[in-house]
Amino acid sequence: MSHTTASVSSSADRKVRIQVLRLQAGYERIALQHSLCTLANGLQPGALAAMVRDHIGGATSGWLATGWRFVRRYPVSLSVMGSLFSTATRRRLVLKSALIAGLVWLARRDQAERARTVQGPESGA
Fold it and tell me: Strand, helix or coil at 2?
């Protein structure tokens, strides 16, 4: 094989490789565009709410639904909650109070659970 034949062959190979790389880049751009569209659709409020509802499920959704109905029925309650969190001092006080209330609730729940365990399952029926 002569030098000119090899250079023509390598030039043709290079052109083919460039075309293949361009096609591959085009497919990657299309795949990226598709992924971004899917992501954008998933970030819409309805889709996010459905995702949260599906993730939370069960008993917790009952609490959330009750809270949502309360806020819808009494819109001023949301305003009151907002005013409680309006300053850093109030925010800290409310968060500490909520933390203490949550810890008390957990302790009482744990205490009630232990009392049921000690009494046995037959006394609960």
Answer: coil
Integer CA distances (angstroms), 103 to 18, 66, 90, 108, in order: 65, 22, 20, 9
- 89-124 residue pLDDT tens: 888 888 888 889 889 988 898 888 888 887 766 655
Domain ranges of the chain: 87-125
Given a cut of 50, whether residue 125 has pLDDT beyond it is no
Give the tokens for residue 106: 């957990």
pLDDT tens for each residue of 3-33: 566 676 888 899 999 999 999 999 999 999 9
Under 8 Å between Cβ of 91 and 85? yes
User: Crossing angle, helix 58-73 and helix 75-84, to 10 degrees?
Assistant: 100
Report the C-alpha gap between 17 and 12 in whole angstroms: 9
Give the residue among 40, 64, 39, 41 at the shortest CA–CA distance from 52.
64
Contact 47, 53 (CB under 8 A): no
- Show Cβ contacts of residue 64 under 8 Å, excluding neighbours closer than 6 positions: 56
